[in-house]
Amino acid sequence: MTQPTVLIVEDNQSLRQSLIMVLEMEGIKTLAAEDGHEAVTVLRQHSPAVVLLDMQLPGNVSGLDLLAAIRRTPRLATTRVVLHTAEQHASTLPEAEAADLVILKPADIDDLLTMIRRLF
Prior knowledge:
alpha/beta; Rossmann fold; five-stranded parallel β-sheet
């Protein structure tokens, strides 16, 4: 059986590296992107089980834009998306309804791991 993969899309390098380290220490394979454009490139080559997605990304491709693109792509139909954001009202945004889960930053790492594992 192939190991499920989590794509971490986070512009904060320190947080991105910490999430990679924690997930990999738990035996979860990871991919990473620092912005929406890089995430699009990764998603052209990979079909992760879960995308941990920062809602506010730099550049022309926001987290919500990326979420919409994932949902429009048949090959990614089973990909679960977790919006990981500091935006307090993110879960009330109509665009965020396509996410499987919205988690506010800073998230407790144990809770985050539990939620990600439940999505596999």
